[in-house]
Amino acid sequence: MNPALTVTPAVGAALLDDFSLEMTGKDVPRLEEAQGSIPRGTRINITFLAGEDLGMRLAAARAVKRLGFVPVPHISARRLPSRAALEEFLSGLAEDGTADNVFVVGGDPARPEGPYPDALAVLRTGLLQRHGVRHVGISGYPEGHPAIADGTLWTALTDKTAALGAHRFAGDVITQFGFDVDPVLGWLEAARARGVHLPVRIGVPGPAGVRRLLGYATRFGVATSASVARKYGFSLTNLMGTTGPDRFLHALAHRYDPERHGAVKVHFYTFGGLRRTADWIAGFRQAVRQVP
């Protein structure tokens, strides 16, 4: 889909300034290839996946900084085997000058691999501020979580928000991706009503193959009904094509109200690759500038 067909100036002004991206520890070569399409100073989250070791995670954060971007290393609470492992990771980040920003998430394991059952437990250790962390990202789930009850999710969000305030961290919320703007906007209003006034980065998939997107959606419990798919711009009966988030961003921009929804930006999940996502965003932003 041609982004110029659907974008409006409001998209760039309200949402696409200061967007963020996501990469894995193995994606440093891809980031080097994509760097020319990414504005300097862009926040780039670095995931904390199984199969990646401490050295790879630290090297990725150093590379993000070296290339002129802001590294946001993830800390997966349930993947940490010990307090010592958390301290070693934070110490390494601090030594490299990459500890200012982190994103703390519960993580995928059904059972914690160490002493931290959730992100809040990590926030309460006192280790983040001790190692120079200043800004902490936390997660939000507009469409819920397949393994966590909605009430538990809301309690976790409000408790983590309170913990950030108590420890005087700056922070934001990064949401799980979705294909439908309706639950995102409803969740934003509900979060603000519960006293969560942190800036929110709405998770958006970069352009990718439909089959790949549906695979991630199934894994994370994201709704993919036929009507939702049509609204986003793909068909459940044709899985061979690719699709981007232009319709989603168009709808979000037109319905976004700062008074009701608070401060909102966009976070891109690079399922289709960093270079592809970065080039798509650059083209989208250029189209915005050309709209009269």
UniProtKB/TrEMBL annotation:
Pathway named in the protein's UniProt entry: One-carbon metabolism; tetrahydrofolate interconversion
Cofactor: FAD
Positions in coiled-coil regions: none
Protein name (record): 5,10-methylenetetrahydrofolate reductase
Keywords: FAD, Flavoprotein, Oxidoreductase
Transmembrane spans: none
Annotated organism of origin: Streptomyces incarnatus
